[in-house]
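Write out this protein's structure.
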Amino acid sequence: MGSATVVLGPALAVAGVLAVVTAAAVAWRTHLGTARLAVVASVRAVAQLGAVALLIGAIVGSPWLSAAFVLVMVGVAAYTAARRVTPDRSGWWSALPIALTLPVTGLLVLGGVVPPAGIAVIPMAGILVGGTMTATSLAGRRALDELTARRGEVEAALSLGFPDRDARIEIVRPTAGQALVPAIDQTRTVGLVTLPGAFVGMLLGGASPVAAGAVQVLVLLLLLATETVAVAVMVELVCRGLVRRPLTAAR
C-alpha cells in the first residue's frame, strides 16, 4: 500500500529502524550522551503518532471533540515547557504564553481564514502550539540562566535603586530574544533552504502551488507572531519573579 510520498511496507519499517540505530550509535560512539534519549524519543514518537492518528480519525468529524483535543495539546505543551524551564512549580506559568494560541486559532476560524472543521483546526492549532511551546521553553531557560550567571549585575542595579523587574529585564531581554532565532531563520529562508511541511502537504494533497504557498506563508507569519508574543510574556514572567528556580538550584 502506498502514498504520494513513501511506500508503506517492510522497507519503510527497516528505514526507520536504521535511522534510530544510526542516531543512537553515533551519539554513543561520540559520547554525546543522547543515545538512550534518541531511542526513547523514537519509540514514543511511533506510539504517540499511531495513537493520535487513530484518535484524530475518530474525532475529526466533531467540532466539540476537535476543540477538546486542541485543549489537550495545549495542556501537554504547557506541562512540557514547565518541566523544561524550571523544576519549581512556578514553571506552570509557562501555560500562559502557550494558551495565547487558543484565541489566535479562534479568530482564524471566526474570520473565515480556517474552516470550522477538525481536519483544518487541529493541524493549524498544533503548529502554533508546538512552535510557541519551543519558544517559551527556550526563553524561560535562557532568562533564568542569565539571571543566575549575572546575579552580581542584577544586585548592582538594585543597589542603585532600580525596581526588581527593571533590574532583571535589561539582563534577560537580549538572551531570551535568541529563542526567536529559529522562527526568524525559518521565515527568511523558506523556499530557498527548506520547503516546510504545510507547503509540501498541500501540494501532495492536490492544491495548487499558489494556494500551498499562501497557506505556508500564513503559517510562518502566525508562528513568528505567536512566538514573539510568547517570548515577551515569558520574559515578563521571569523578570517579575513569577517564574523562578528553587532556592537550592539558584545558589
